[in-house]
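Problem: given the chain below (168 residues), write out its structure.
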Amino acid sequence: MKRKNSVLFLVALFFVSGCARLFHPEYTVVLTSQNIEEKLNKKFPVEEKLGNFAIVFENLKVDIKESVIFLKVHYSARFFKIPFSEGEIVLSGKPAVDKTGKNLYIKKLKVEAVKINGKEILNSKLKRAVSAALSEVLKETPVFKLKNRMKIKSIKIHDGKIYVKLQL
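Solution.
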């Protein structure tokens, strides 16, 4: 008798867990480099000012490789409205979900390369300053945002795409 009750209990448990999947389905959204570029480029060009010095970030390009998102941004710097420098900054970061589970951001930004007038710069202070300026813009801009009751369950990068698994 106990064995029969145990079997019935297990059958009922499997049935309930199977029904739970029907009411809480999972969906997957695929984000490409182009999707992320379109979303982030709504914030660009960005101008950062410090006294008479100004730097403009524009023409953001996104590339997804392995588990990293690479951002390439063109910049131009002016002093008293006179252009004196331009170049390119390459950042890398990882996709991360915020506390609400509804927004996907690029976090842990790291400067990979800074080119000024075509020459690569190795100065770490300059790299940190550039990273800080761009991080402020990027940390406020989600690359994927949910407006319904669903939440982001997991993120996986494969073949140059980000697979975002959603769940009710």
